[in-house]
Amino acid sequence: MKLNLMYYFMKPDKLYMDKRELMRRAIALSIESVKAGGGPFGAVVARDGEIIAEASNSVTIDNDPTAHAEVNAIRKATRRLGTFDLSGCEIYSSCEPCPMCLGAIYWAHIDKIYFANDRKDAAAIGFDDDFIYQELELPVGQRRKAVEVFMADEAIEAFELWKQKADKNEY
Ligand SMILES: [Zn+2]
User: Fold this and answer.
1) How far is the CA of 83 from the centre of ligand 1 (A)?
2) The dihedral of CA 148, 150, 152, 154: what is its sign?
3) Separation of CA 88 and ligand 1 centre (Å)
């Protein structure tokens, strides 16, 4: 009983971190990641100054090209909070999010993005973020990645089912 009460009073001071401390944590994760064999990126998802989840890039460790620090941190945060909606949270990334992570951040409804290094810094050490951003600005037919649109007449069935579904869990 006494211990619980102490925890309650200590909790706000102990866990609250300002934005520089949170970014410093993301940066520390990025540095640890390089030493551990991952990519040089770290990310922290925080809410009201408290770390909800933190992660580093594990693309080469997990053989997962989607295992960027931000995606890994979002997955951990949603699992911890038991929701797909991270409204009220902010993300601190040691580097500007790539288009994939930016999309994930939008889908997660995270309120605000803080980053330190930017896409040009990443490009300078051989990461493709800036190239993908440039691709997005081009019409589909002019991108380097081939795209072919077909079979929408069959694929539309799932959309029609979704539209009609009364008890869908919208996100
Ligand atoms: Zn990314």
Assistant:
1) 21
2) negative
3) 21
Distances (CA, A) of 20 to 69, 88, 92, 114: 18, 18, 10, 10
Ligand 1: distance of its center to the CA of 98 in Å?
4
By three-state DSSP, how is residue 44 classified? strand
Name residue, tokens 């102490």.
Answer: 6
Question: What are the tokens at 94?
Answer: 């040691």
Tens digit of each residue's pLDDT (9 = 90 or more) over 68-109: 999 999 999 999 999 999 999 999 999 999 999 999 999 999
pLDDT tens-digit readout, 105-159: 999 999 999 999 999 999 999 998 889 999 999 998 899 999 999 999 999 999 9
**Residues known to be catalytic:** 70
Residues 6+ away with beta carbon under 8 Å from 84: 78, 108, 171
Instruction: Classify residue 72 by burial, with Cβ atoms within 10 Å: 0-12, 13-18, 19+.
Output: buried
Q: Which pLDDT band, with edges at 50, 70 and 90, does 1 fall under?
A: very low
